[in-house]
Amino acid sequence: MVRVSQGAADRATAWRVRDALAAHPLLGGSTAQISIQANFEAVTLDGWALDDQVQQLALRLAVRAAGRYPVHMQLRVRRCTAGGRRANAIQTHQI
């Protein structure tokens, strides 16, 4: 999921970057959750991505769409486990 942050000062750039990221099948689904913050000096990607490749893909597409603005990435890598939270809770109790 890709969305524009409410506090984006440069909404045109933020939406242009959002459209570029959301159009890609890997970034439009559940492999990343990215919030775009854009002011008149830079674009910031904040959130998480499933792995390093998805993170680099988001950065590459954002740099193309941002034009002359630099892109700062604050994406964390989030590892998925089979079973989600329940599997983590079971693992914690077994240790």
Q: Give the CA-CA distance, first to last residue.
A: 34 Å
What value does the Rg take, in angstroms?
15 Å
Total count of helical runs of at least 4 residues: 4
For the largest beta-sheet, the strand count, sense and barrel status come to: 4 strands, mixed
Overall helicity: 40-55%
Order of helices and strands: EHHEEHEH
**Contiguous runs where pLDDT drops below 50 for at least 5 residues:** 86-95
Spatial sequence of strands, sheet with the most strands: 1-2-3-4
Choose one word for the global shape.
globular
Summarize, please.
The protein has helices at 11-22, 25-28, 52-66, 84-94, and strands spanning 2-4, 32-38, 43-49, 71-77.
Overview of the molecule:
- By secondary structure, the protein is an alpha/beta fold.
- It has one domain.
- The chain contains four helices and four strands, in the order βααββαβα.
- It has helices at 11-22, 25-28, 52-66, 84-94; strands spanning 2-4, 32-38, 43-49, 71-77.
- The protein has a four-stranded mixed sheet.
- Strand 3 (43-49), helix 3 and strand 4 (71-77) form a beta-alpha-beta unit.
- The radius of gyration is 15 Å and the shape is globular.
- Residues 86-95 have low confidence and may be disordered.
